[in-house]
Amino acid sequence: QVQLVESGGGLVRPGGSLRLSCAASGTIFSIYAMGWYRQAPGKQRELVATITRGGSTSYVDSVKGRFTISRDNAKATVDLQMNNLKSEDTAVYYCNRSPVTNAWGSWGQGTQVTVSS
Question: Which of 11, 39, 58, 94 is the most buried (most CB within 10 A)?
Answer without folding.
Answer: 94
